[in-house]
């Protein structure tokens, strides 16, 4: 049974993804407010945030479609799953929020490259990384252990 292994990876790696995304947002916000130059470090932090989010998405989709007994049970009775707030969270809300977070993270990484001025680069990055961070924070299952035993 691969479920516990993939769930542990997903749980542990979420902290790396969350930290990188928060740092990318804070760095972009600081650059915007302080009118700093856009640097290679700004770009790289956005890229690493996107990679971390992509890994989380991949592991999450493996859990969702292949390994999770939660989604397997929910798929067998979707009407019942929709009437349970915990099941609905994992089957619909978590998936939707996290896919949006991945898309917003990539927009935060890509759109600054298309701006010609550093201020615009920071502004775009702050906006999209901020939205991604909000989606992640809304989509984390706070009702489950934050540091589950391995």
Describe the 3D structure.
By secondary structure, the protein is mainly alpha-helical. It is 83% helix and 0% strand. It is built from six helices and no strands. The longest helix has 32 residues, at 3-34.
Uncertain runs = none
Number of strands: 0
What structural class should be given to the helix and strand makeup? mainly alpha
Helix content: over 70%
Number of helices: 6
The major β-sheet equals: none
The secondary-structure element order is HHHHHH
- Report the radius of gyration as a whole number of Å: 17 Å
- Compute the separation of the termini in Å: 14 Å
What is the arithmetic mean of pLDDT?
A: 95
Shape: elongated
β-strand percent reads under 5%
Write the layout of secondary structure elements.
Elements: H1 3-34, H2 40-67, H3 69-76, H4 78-82, H5 85-114, H6 118-139
């Amino acid at each position: 049974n691969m479920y516990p292994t993939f769930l542990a990876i997903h749980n542990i790696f979420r902290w790396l993804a969350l930290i990188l995304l928060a740092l990318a947002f804070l760095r972009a916000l600081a650059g915007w407010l302080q009118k700093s130059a856009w640097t290679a470090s700004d770009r790289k932090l956005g890229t690493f945030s996107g990679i971390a989010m992509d890994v989380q998405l991949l592991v999450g989709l493996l859990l969702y479609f292949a390994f999770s007994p939660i989604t397997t049970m929910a798929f067998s009775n979707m009407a019942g799953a929709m009437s349970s707030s915990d099941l609905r969270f994992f089957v619909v809300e978590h998936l939707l929020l996290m896919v949006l977070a991945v898309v917003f993270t990539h927009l935060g990484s890509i759109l600054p490259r298309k701006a010609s001025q550093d201020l615009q680069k920071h502004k775009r990055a702050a906006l999209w990384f901020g939205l991604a961070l909000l989606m992640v924070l809304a989509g984390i299952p706070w009702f489950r252990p934050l540091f589950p035993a391995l």
